[in-house]
Write a structure and sequence with these properties.
261 residues; TIM Barrel; 4-stranded parallel sheet; 10 helices; binds 1,3-dihydroxyacetonephosphate
Length: 261
């Protein structure tokens, strides 16, 4: 079985609801006028835009509409309780989210999240029917010290420690080297290939055949010009752009180029 590519636009902390609406209008216009795209296309939006984007996508029934989903950028592991400002997987699912990013490096770097929390979040997401996009990647210091393999392996093992082979149906992995995020300096295709290969080997060791079907996408300074060669690497099953997903035309072009469509 071949793996359907996945492109996730991570808006991070950007866009007001009116911008989200006009973005979706333009993006759907592009999808309807272009070719059939054999990929899942997800928008990872701020909570305040979730409803707007959900309704906009639900109101679009043109070409590629069945490939679209909206999701969020984090999820709490508990169902409910005294956790001011947190939002549970059940709440997100109830509000129309279909997936969540988990363990993005900005959460790890600025908000102290670690692999143990990632494991809890991923399990809660999947148990509540949300797809998980678990992010791993080494810092610049670790990269320079030649520790990429060790760091990614360890991070992945702990981050996935609560998941079973059955959970792989809703699991996606993003390799995002921290030094490539927002720097304009994407990983070379060779680096992406090697790390994705390593992640695939780990997934297969953990989950056998189920691990062979998990999508592994690359993120970090992707754009419409560099995505094609990155996606040509074995085990690179799509992209997770940040900056390049903020403009609908650029995101659309990135997807088309990534697919070679
Ligand atoms: P950039 O594409 O802006 O480098 O961001 C990548 C990222 O962090 C996506 O989650």
């Amino acid at each position: 079985m071949s793996i359907r590519p996945l492109f996730v636009g991570n808006w991070k902390m950007n866009k007001l609801r009116a911008d989200a609406q006009s973005y979706c209008d333009k993006f759907c216009e592009l999808l309807s006028s272009g070719p059939e795209l054999d990929a899942d296309i997800w928008l990872s939006v701020p909570l305040t835009c979730l409803d707007t984007v959900k309704d906009a996508l639900a109101g679009y029934s043109g070409k590629n509409s069945d490939r679209l989903a909206v999701g969020v950028q984090n999820v709490h592991w508990l169902e409910k309780g005294a956790h001011t400002a947190e939002v549970s997987a059940q709440m997100l699912s109830d509000a129309g989210a279909r997936f969540s990013l988990i363990g993005h490096s900005e959460r790890r770097q600025y908000y102290g999240e670690d692999d143990e929390h990632v494991a809890l979040r991923a399990k809660a997401a999947i148990d509540n029917g949300l797809a998980a996009v678990v992010c791993v990647g080494e810092t610049e210091e670790q990269y320079r010290a030649g520790k990429t393999e060790q760091v990614v392996k360890q991070s992945l093992r702990t981050s996935l420690s609560s998941l079973s082979a059955e959970d792989c149906k809703l699991l996606n992995i993003a390799y995002e080297p921290v030094w490539a995020i927002g720097t304009g300096l994407a990983a070379t295709p060779e680096i992406a290939r090697d790390v994705h290969r390593l992640i695939r080997a780990e997934l297969q060791e953990l989950y056998a055949d189920s691990g062979a079907q998990v999508r592994i996408v690359y993120g970090g300074s992707t754009n419409p010009d560099n995505i094609s060669v990155l996606c040509q690497q074995e085990d690179v099953c799509g992209g997770l752009p940040g900056g390049a997903s903020l403009d609908p035309e650029t995101f659309y072009k990135l997807i088309v180029n990534g697919l070679g469509a």
